[in-house]
């Protein structure tokens, strides 16, 4: 029968969870960087296309 003590001893020697957490943190940082970059680039593109549209319409 498993007790909490046995489960904790089994988890103490398991390094797979640590690696998964590290990969999760790295993936989160990459996602945040991509979102920030896309937001910045999207705003710049929006401004550029609005300016170009204004010049093409003669306004």
The ordered string of helix (H) and strand (E) elements is: HH
Can you count the beta strands?
0
Low-confidence stretches: none
Supply Rg.
25 Å
Number of discrete helical segments? 2
Termini distance? 80 Å
Secondary structure: helix percent = over 70%
Structural class: mainly alpha
- Sheet-strand content, in percent, reads under 5%
Q: Notable features of this structure?
A:
single chain, 59 residues
What does the model show?
With 59 residues, the chain is mainly α. The chain is built from two helices and no strands. It has helices at 4-12, 16-57. It starts with a helix and ends with a helix. The model has no long low-confidence stretch (mean pLDDT 83).
List the helices and strands and how they pair.
Layout: H1 4-12, H2 16-57
Question: What does this entry show, briefly?
Answer:
The chain is mostly helical and 59 residues long. The protein has helices spanning 4-12, 16-57.
């Amino acid at each position: 029968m498993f007790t909490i003590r046995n489960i904790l001893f089994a988890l103490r020697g398991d390094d797979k969870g640590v690696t998964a957490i590290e990969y999760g943190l790295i993936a989160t940082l990459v996602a945040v960087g991509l979102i920030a970059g896309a937001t910045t680039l999207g705003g710049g593109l929006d401004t550029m296309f609005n300016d170009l549209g204004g010049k093409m319409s003669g306004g």
